[in-house]
Amino acid sequence: MGKILLLALFFSWSLSSMADEFPWVNQIKFQDSITWVGTNDGLYKIVISKDKKIRWSKELEKGTDFIIDSEGTIWASNFGKGLNINNGHGWQFLQNDTVKYIYNIYEYKSQIFILANINETLCYLKWDKSKWVFLTSFNPSKEQGKVSGFGLVVDSNGIYSCIDFYEKPVENSANCFYQYDWEKWNVVKKDVTDFFYENISDKWYLFNSNDGRKFIMNNLIITLPNKEVINKRFFSVKGVLWILTTNGNFYKYLNNNWIKYDLIENTNADTYYLKNENEVWAGGYSYVAYYEKGKWIEVCFLEPRPNGEETGESEEELQKQREIEASKTWGVINDPDGYTNLREMPNPDSDIVAIILKNVKFKYREVYKMDWCYVETMTGAKGYMHKSRITKI
Asked: What's the fold here for domain 316-392?
């Protein structure tokens, strides 16, 4: 399963460059009156005035991660090109011929650290005196196999990241939480598929996607209440853990207690972000909304046209596009193997353009007089899937 996940992530990163038409929200962060929305298609800026008028613009093309540091400067990766920064005086591109493919950005003691792919090697670097300083890499021998890394935390004790072996997996090494103690890499915990560090109260949260009933907080095993199962998880800006369960219930974990919250699940959302107790945001497939007075308010369906600019297309062309969009349906795969191939053409021998995993939502429409469907994923991958492998949702 680790290999399958890795392939899916690889295709997501590779194909994100073609995803201008369908932005997929992966981060939302808040800066005073501005809401920043990070997508595979780029970085968007949303401002809502007191009279509820919405202004939004596309600030950057492409992206994998962005942070707002302690000084209010925005650091945003442009996947395949490098890093952009904005300290309130416009965007500045940090040109570098080597450090282009940046996965994660992290701040520790006012210093910026990154996890990047350099020559197919996981490298960890620090921005120091206007240049990148190499700290360490995770590059196993050919006998061990290849690795993928995700997530980045840095403190005085070292560098932390989740690392997964694939192709030639090392026994008991896939999906592990590692620490680099400034001398060597060490396994902190096995069977970890995601982690979060809350620096306000110095708490580590370790998750395993195969066990949604519990997680680890520091060294304690925390179980969800009432036999609930994790569907999605998110943290407030103050580091409080929130859980959306498979039953559609929201809980927050505070002072070692579960507190149920009166919030309605957003069926269009893949991710949630909490600005404060009264302002919850949600992001999904070309979708952004916030919760107010018991209902979700749609901010916009993200488009690659900043500020609502005209496309130059005729009304007839626009109507045709609307009809095509209306013919599409949301679906998930129907495959006992837990994954299905997305192919370039409606042919079982055609090239594979992506691998779609179980429970991953996508849009599709049937191909006229064929047993195939045209599929568009939330990461921008487009191709064909046999209709027997699709379940409508």
From this structure: SH3 type barrels. (2.30.30)
Confidence (pLDDT) at 3? 36
Nearest-CA neighbor of 146 among 311, 7, 239, 306? 7
pLDDT (tens digit per residue) in 72-107: 999 999 888 889 999 888 899 887 788 989 999 999
Ranges of residues in the chain with a pLDDT under 70 are 1-22, 141-145, 166-174, 301-327, 379-380
Nearest-angstrom CA–CA distance, 125 and 75: 14
Q: What angle do CA 40, 59, 269 make, to 5 degrees?
A: 45
Per the DSSP assignment, residues forming a β-bridge with 214 are 223
pLDDT value, residue 210: 83
Q: From its phi and psi, is residue 246 left (phi > 0), alpha (psi between -120 and 50) or beta?
A: alpha
Instruction: Quote the CA–CA distance of 178 and 57 in Å, as a whole number.
Output: 38
Contacts of 155 by beta carbon, 8 Å cutoff, 6+ apart: 108, 197
Range(s) for CATH 2.30.30.40 in the chain? Answer: 316-392
Structure tokens at 110: 């006012």
Supply the pLDDT for residue 316: 62
Burial class (CB in 10 A: 0-12, 13-18, 19+), 323: exposed
19-42 b/e (C-beta count within 10 Å ≥ 16 → b)? bbebbbbbbbbbeeeebbbbbbbb
pLDDT of residue 321: 59
Q: Return the pLDDT at 13.
A: 39
> Looking at residue 313, what is its pLDDT?
53
Q: Which residues contact 139 (CB under 8 A, 6 or more apart)?
A: 121, 122, 147
The ranges of the chain annotated as CATH 2.130.10.10 are 2-304
Angle, vertex CA 286, rays to CA 17 and CA 30, nearest 5: 95
* pLDDT value of residue 168: 60
- The label of the residue with tokens 């919250």 reads 261
Please enumerate, as own/partner, the contacts of 168-176 that have beta carbons within 8 Å and a separation of 24 or more: 168/142, 168/143, 168/144, 169/2, 169/3, 169/145, 170/140, 170/144, 170/145, 173/144, 174/2, 175/2, 175/208
Q: Residue 78: what pLDDT?
A: 86
CATH topology of domain 2-304: Methylamine Dehydrogenase; Chain H (2.130.10)
